[in-house]
Amino acid sequence: MDVPSDPYAAPAAAGTAGEGAGIPLRRLLLAVGDPLVDVLAAPAGLDVRVDNVVIVDPEDEAEAFAGDLVLLIGARGSAARHLVRAAARRGAAAVAVKVHSDEPAYPPPQGWGTAPQVRRGGEEVALLRAEASDAGVALLGVRPEVRWDQLQSLCRSVLDDARLTSEADLGETAGDLYSLAQTISALTGGLVTIEDAASRVLAHSSGEEADELRRLSVLGRRGPEQYLALLREWGVFSRLRAGEEVVRIDEHPQLGIRRRLAVGIHAGSQPLGTIWVQEGAHSLAEDAEQALLGAARMTALHLVRHRTEATVGLRLRDDLLASLLEGRIEAAALADTIEVNTDRPALVVAFAISPSGAPGAGGRAEPARGGGTDRSGRELNRRRLVDLITVHTAAYRRTSLVTAVGGRIYVLMPDLARGGGSSGSGNADSAADSSRRSAESSVLALTRKTVEAARATLGVAVQGAVGSAVNSLGAIPDSRAEADRILDAMGRDLAMDVATMSDVRTRVLISETLAYLRGTPALRDPRVSALADHDAAQGSDLVVSLLAYLEEFGDVRTAAARLHIHPNTLRYRVRRAESVSGIDLSDPTQRLFTHLQLLMERAT
């Protein structure tokens, strides 16, 4: 059972509704947002204030009052609609309900592609969204695997921190962390470093006799990758993320690592960072581990505040943009976060680093400079590429937005010109189509320029796909899905660097069909497979010869010239292919399916 033992316990005291108590919903989302919850609807925006967190059971009579974040347990999907409306009537600021919102809009068959799936949530989420929007209350979708007690604990920790913190000292977080590091150092007798979840140094204590790991971390403001790799290999990070365990790291003189203690910093179940205590000239204090546990809990409040205030604009904007691209949030909910017109045409451009061996310009992939092929190198290339794309798109359109989702980088191009109309509807449609084509053409040119700049500046082979323009931000997942389909085809067998669907629609459809055939063995013709097996065993060229023959519509001379062989040689190979496989090329249906499967065999 994933509910707390006392789900109806009285919540911590909060200010009276209407007196400015609590915190904006957007600030709460920074601590408990993706991947725990999604914003499904926000008819009043994300600046509504949350004062309290209450849990409501469908059979309980507990009331929600103004400013509450209501967690609906035991009710999912459409069954929760009447509870959402009831909470809104009682003045709730937001309602959280568990929904199954991760089903793709177009479920791909096995082997269909590698793009991050577009999540719509289906009719269940649509009904809940409509109910919440009509009732005027924010709706949060909680992932099914999230425990209610963990979510409640995390939300309350954020609210408690807000109550203990005045607006005047919000800017003192960095100074507080350095002071806290010095205090922890005094309590443990060691040299302290406080780092975030990405191993970036946020604060450190003073002191001599730093080992090589501490010295490089403080100087570089981040743990050096070679040491981080060792810590991952030793299982240190997995233990730190698991809970409130003080982890001991033995001394390794040959590696420049002295003995140290480490503890994870958590808000609920969400890892926020780590405190490291290096042993200096003297042994650590006897109660160093106990002191470190208390320090981690105290530091969690500082880090939550640091995250919510220092990155409120960029991180929340990125999370919401990713949610919009994946169809998990209504465009109207972004109105007070992203300054764009939700009713104007828009489109999505998707970029991806070419997979190994994928054709770049000139038909080959180019090695990346300064990154390499290891995980850290790929991540460095991706970050550089995000920066480059952001610079280029911002120069093109001030309101463009860039975010990375699942290894791909997406650009939202909003506020495209809407075609003007004349008195005749036909002329109006024509003008709109012309305007859309002009916008797509302009974005396509920008995409080519960006891909070329990535190759020239970063030495990275990049592919870019431009989705079709849609009439409003509400339909932007469709443009993103189209761009993903093009990138998928590029990664499989489409030898292009930049394209729109109108450029390559037929080839994308063929590529998707072939991908479906690859992932569905029952649809393969065993006679064509036997022909490919014969070539492999005998070293013959029947497959490539028959494919050339079919692609040239049976024109033996043209196909033979393409293969640089005599026409009679090609005639022999075609007859031999029919004999080996048993395929009758005079039958148009056999000929059609043979052609498709030969294309698949060639690309495999």
TrEMBL record:
Residues 359-374 have a biased composition (Gly residues). Gene3D superfamilies: PucR C-terminal helix-turn-helix domain. Coiled coil: none annotated. Residues 330-488 form the CdaR GGDEF-like domain. Residues 358-377 are annotated as: Disordered. It holds the Pfam family GGDEF_2. It comes from the Bacteria. Residues 543-599 form the PucR C-terminal helix-turn-helix domain. Belongs to the CdaR family. This is Helix-turn-helix domain-containing protein. It comes from Streptomonospora wellingtoniae.
